[in-house]
Automatic annotation (TrEMBL):
One of its GO terms (biological process) is isopentenyl diphosphate biosynthetic process, methylerythritol 4-phosphate pathway. Keywords: ATP-binding, Isoprene biosynthesis, Kinase, Nucleotide-binding, Transferase. The active site is at 10, 142. This is 4-diphosphocytidyl-2-C-methyl-D-erythritol kinase. It comes from Candidatus Cryosericum terrychapinii. Its EC number is 2.7.1.148. Pfam families: GHMP_kinases_C, GHMP_kinases_N. It catalyses: 4-CDP-2-C-methyl-D-erythritol + ATP = 4-CDP-2-C-methyl-D-erythritol 2-phosphate + ADP + H(+). Residues 67-150 form the GHMP kinase N-terminal domain. Belongs to the GHMP kinase family. IspE subfamily. Gene3D superfamilies: 3.30.230.10, GHMP kinase, C-terminal domain. It comes from the Bacteria. One of its GO terms (molecular function) is ATP binding. Residues 227-287 form the GHMP kinase C-terminal domain.
Length: 299
């Protein structure tokens, strides 16, 4: 049996990074995560087999070592070893990468979340929601969100995921500037900024409640762009000008919100109408030839 599945990515429509607690490996965060219909593709062939087998290939063989899709399989068989009465499969997965990494869209995390959900479905749902959540937390901090559906507020180290009621229908324009961002380095820059200027120096300048209300009422937050939705926007350094210029184009096209996703480099605009998102994508593409743009529905 062959299945072709589109994975999802996410936007951090609002993101506050907290100072790292003493001895902690990761930073705590508070964020509004929105799933978007933009991602990679998993082409999955399954056949019944005496013993479980998993084989991964990709159009990006450089990403095969430590791949999140392989980690999803490893974690699944670890938590759910073969059992009498449950079918076992040989599963061959081709990961067709379409979304570049180091863009803050969490494509690698989305691939893993989709793989986990599919493995559970193929095996007759042996894991309940709580068990899937626990496995997702072990693989990576954005992955618990990807085993949920719809918008969520995510707290802690990605492990506290609170689903929200859906917003009215929304479409986004995602622009990928020429630069890419190494997530570890971006967190280090935030540490330095917090140490120099205080923990709140990099906080978003608007509250999460205001962002939620703007999306609910479809009312643009501001046309001027004098706001910060994401802590990482404060430490973009030499890439700040490129970010601000793309964001101002997205706002000028009528975005309800526009900002940086994750640690960057993706810049998003969120629109009530798909036509406005498409106009924004064209505008960015014409004016910033090095940028790539995508238009996608928010799920
Ligand atoms: C920026 C976000 O996309 C917001 O959703 C995520 O926090 C990124 O999380 P992620 O994809 O799990 O990040 P990874 O690429 O696995 O992490 C790279 C490095 O970033 C740092 N890191 C990551 C997540 C976190 N909550 N605190 C951190 O300090 C750690 O040094 C980690 O080794
Ligand atoms: N399936 C995968 N797809 C992409 N990258 C993967 C995958 N598995 C592991 N990786 C590793 O994870 C890193 C982060 O990839 P991802 O696509 O999630 O980027 P990102 O959106 O910038 O993530 P983040 O949200 O961490 O900033 C890559 O640099 C790569 O080394």
């Amino acid at each position: 049996m062959r299945l072709t599945i589109e994975t999802r990515t996410k936007l951090n429509a609002w993101l506050r990074v907290l100072p790292k607690e003493k001895g902690a490996a990761l930073h705590g965060l508070e964020s509004l995560f929105l799933p978007i219909a933009l991602g990679d593709r998993l082409i999955v062939d399954t056949s019944l087999s005496e013993t479980p087998r998993f084989l991964l290939s990709s159009n990006r063989p450089d990403l095969i070592p430590s791949n999140t899709v392989q980690e999803a399989w490893n974690a699944f068989v670890d938590s759910c070893p073969p059992a009498r009465g449950r079918p076992s499969f040989q599963i061959t997965v081709h990961l067709d990468k379409r979304i570049p990494e180091q863009t803050g869209l969490g494509a690698g995390s989305g691939d893993a979340g989709t793989m986990l959900l599919l493995l559970n479905q193929l095996h007759g749902f042996p894991l309940n929601r709580g068990q899937l959540h626990a496995i997702a937390c072990r693989i990576g901090s954005d992955i618990p969100f990807f085993v949920q559906s719809g918008p969520c507020i995510v707290r802690g180290m990605g492990d506290r995921v609170e689903p929200l009621p859906s917003f009215p229908h929304l479409t986004c324009c995602v622009a990928l500037p020429e630069f890419r961002v190494d997530t570890r380095h971006a967190y280090e820059l935030l540490d330095n900024a917090m140490a120099d200027n205080g923990a709140s120096a990099v906080d978003p300048s608007v509250s999460l409640d205001i962002v939620l209300e703007a999306l609910q009422k479809l009312e643009p937050l501001s046309r001027s762009g004098s706001f910060r939705l994401n802590s990482f926007e404060a430490t973009l350094g030499e890439n700040t000008a490129s970010f601000l210029s793309i964001r101002s184009m997205l706002l000028a096209s009528g975005a309800i919100l526009a900002g940086l996703s994750g640690s960057g480099s993706a810049v998003f605009g969120i629109y009530a109408e798909r036509a406005a998102a498409e106009t924004a994508a064209l505008d960015v593409q014409q004016r910033v030839s090095a940028a790539r743009t995508f238009v996608a529905e928010i799920l």
